[in-house]
Design a protein that fits this description.
By secondary structure, the protein is α/β, with parallel strands linked by helices. It has one domain: Alpha-Beta Barrel (TIM Barrel). About 35% of the residues lie in helices and about 15% in strands. The protein has helices at about 1-10, 40-45, 90-100, 120-135, 160-170, 190-200, 235-250, 260-270, 280-285, 290-305, 310, and strands at about 20, 25, 30, 50-60, 70-75, 80, 110, 140-145, 180, 205-210, 230, 255, 275-280. The strands form three sheets. An eight-stranded parallel β-barrel has the order 3-4-7-8-9-10-12-13, surrounded by four helices. Strands 5-6-11 form a three-stranded antiparallel β-sheet, with no helix packed on it. It has a two-stranded antiparallel sheet with strand order 1-2. Strand 5 and strand 6 form a beta hairpin.
């Protein structure tokens, strides 16, 4: 069945190939963390034409997350609000699933997080334990310190906390790329400060961005629900952060937020993203989403005279 799906949905073209984090990606369109939290359908997502899959956020132990309802569609805005709160099976069950089923035939990202009850010191140990258990299966690991849906008991993005996390993980690391996921709501000065820390600690890349707490321009009455907003309204703010990050650092960027079409993906690539991810657009547009974006990217690259996605990365900054 997966072979049949791959035959229908995959787009195989050398212009789509991207080399990032020391790994070859057959195309730049991936599934963002939050969709396959527990590594239950990585192979199926690869068969649907996605160039990579990011699982998680994975925590050390199973966690229920926030009370239901906690996921809301905003169809008027092609958006969603979620306040899942790091619900998941925990690292032991996720590892067992990866051992049993194997990793998918595309690069695998592992998004790691803390328990909701952990204090600042315990959180660092949470990241270390999940990293230690799951990094052998990962092509890159994402440290998620920007989720707006978990208890705000301390400043997860403070310089001291970030440096402690990265130093701890590097001490455990056997050369797996480590990237950090940042939010869209921080002022430019804070983003620049974070980038200084990231570069000083040898972090390998940035995921930009997480969901937003802003409701600017959102029409749906469901906008009053609390949680992180994803989808269409995040497209421009996320691209602005990508542009800022790419103008300040040479680190690879994975662009996330409002990627619902080839044009939206291309916009982020030209703003500086080497790869892009989506979640909400997959919910609204269905199984052909990756195929249609990749086909559209090929047409856009040809229109603008680029022979590859890599050649187009960051060209809007010039």
């Amino acid at each position: 069945m997966r072979a049949a799906l791959e035959n229908v949905y995959s787009v195989d073209h050398p212009a789509l190939e991207v080399n990032c984090f020391g790994t070859r990606f057959s195309n730049p369109v991936g599934v963002a963390a939050g969709f396959d939290k527990n590594a239950e359908c990585t192979h199926a997502l690869a068969a649907l034409g996605f160039g990579f899959v990011e699982i998680g956020t994975v925590t050390p132990y199973p966690q229920d997350g926030n009370d239901r309802p906690r996921l809301f569609r905003l169809p008027e805005d092609e958006a969603m609000i979620n306040r899942m709160g790091f619900n998941g099976d925990g690292m032991t069950r996720v590892r067992s699933r990866l051992e049993r089923d194997g990793t998918p035939p595309v690069p695998l990202g592992v998004n790691v997080g803390k328990m909701n009850t952990s204090n600042e010191e315990e959180a660092i140990e949470d990241y270390r334990r999940v990293f230690d258990r799951l990094s052998p299966f990962a092509d890159y690991v994402v440290v998620n310190v920007s989720c707006p849906n978990t208890p705000d008991t301390f400043d997860e993005s403070s310089p001291e906390h970030l440096m402690a996390i990265f130093e701890t993980l590097e001490a455990e690391n056997d050369d797996v790329p480590i990237v950090v996921k940042i939010g869209p709501d921080s002022p430019p000065a804070s983003v620049r400060e974070l980038l200084e820390i990231v570069e000083s600690q040898g972090v390998d890349g940035i995921v930009a961005t997480n969901t937003t707490t802003s409701r600017e321009g959102v029409r749906s009455p469901t906008r009053e629900q609390w949680g992180g907003l994803s989808g269409g309204p995040l497209r421009e703010p996320a691209t602005d952060v990508i542009r800022l990050v790419a103008s300040e650092t040479d680190l690879p960027v994975i662009g996330v937020g409002g990627v619902d079409s080839a044009e939206a993906a291309y916009e982020k690539i030209r703003a500086g993203a080497s790869l892009v991810q989506l979640y909400t657009a997959f919910v609204y547009n269905g199984p052909a989403t990756a195929r249609e974006i990749n086909r559209g990217l090929l047409a856009l690259l040809e229109r603008d005279g680029f022979d590859s996605v890599e050649a187009a990365v960051g060209t809007a900054l010039e």
